[in-house]
Design a protein that fits this description.
With 84 residues, this protein is mainly α. It contains four helices and no strands.
């Protein structure tokens, strides 16, 4: 399946130089780079898997207060020494 990718001029120039020196087409070089990248990341855990133990500690618990709605007040209290 064909895909179109816009490359910055610097990357386009580096790709052209790489392809010329290695006698590859741009398509072949890009395919090889993608295959290497995907193979390298295949065995790595996802960000969720890395933090699962921490996320599960807080599953089902609710925040005592909505920090987003009360951020100014909470910061003011914190810096004035009345933090909970």
């Amino acid at each position: 399946m064909p895909h179109s990718v816009r490359l910055p001029p610097r990357v386009e120039q580096q790709l052209a130089e790489y392809c010329a020196s290695h006698k590859l087409s741009k398509s072949k070089a890009i395919k090889q780079a993608l295959e290497r990248m995907l193979e390298a990341s295949a065995g790595q855990p996802s960000p969720y898997e890395l933090g699962r133990e921490f996320f599960e500690q807080h599953r089902g618990t609710r925040a005592k207060e909505n920090v987003a709605l009360n951020s100014k007040r909470l910061l003011r209290e914190h810096f004035r020494g009345r933090a909970k």
